[in-house]
Amino acid sequence: MKIDKFLLAIIGVVLLAYLFPSWGSSGSPIPLNLIGSIGISLIFFFYGLKLSPAQIKTGLSNWKLHILVQLSTFLVFPLIILVFYPFVHSAQGQTVWLAFLFLAALPSTVSSSVVMVNIAKGNVPAAIFNASISGLIGIVITPLWMGLFMQHTATDFNLSSIYIKLITEILVPVALGVALQPYWGKFAREYSSYLTSFDRSIILLIIYKSFAESFEKNVFSSVDVVDLLLISVATTVLFYAVFYLTGFLSDRLGFSQEDRITVQFCGSKKSLVHGTVFSKILFQHLPSVGIMLLPLMIFHAIQLFIVSVIASKLAKRDTIPT
Known about the structure:
globular
């Protein structure tokens, strides 16, 4: 097992934010907000360039698989978190619970889902379809889930203004990328590795700014080692709960081994890319953005590790372990 360099970079950026929080503060001479906004638009413009309409059209035929993956991503995850809402009583507990709801409401990952499904010898075309369409659905669904609870806790949480930002910064660039795909699509595919590096650079910048602001305002003073361990355990349990539930439902629906792999791998993962981008828009006025991202970053690390191990084992087996 190789250590994921991006995870190391995230740890490094959080450490940098702790040591030098002033660079990411609102009074910083470096226009990180502007750079982040432009970077987000470019990320989704390139995403549109790589989004193949032909693959999406082909993938529509396996509709039972797609419905199960999307229901798992946008309904099962949030419903599991909603079960624990009555047990939240303190302000800190409310913030952590909202952070878990944000994690649960996010789209599935794109590149890592496809890569892991390919390693495990699953249904790769279906994985590509679901990973691609999930990000587009999330633009609508994620703010709706958060709006159900954020409007009660944040007076400046305005869904209409949030959707305007999502449309201008994300949806319009995606549409423009799709429209220009006949001309620049080949370029995007040829230089995909460079575009991935660009995506990750923007994500690291947003993570830095989010944590720098939180460190500067001493938001993490109430979070100790025990809290981090509890969050880690909770995210691990959440992952396994959805992973085995999607496997059980796949068996009940009579899916093939390849389809079951795709459902489990795509339906149990959450996108750090979309999470950091959405957090910049949804929580731009909150001082606790760092805490809102904390469960997501832990979940990201956990899902990569667990799915990598499972995919490596499945690549050498003929049947899926139950």
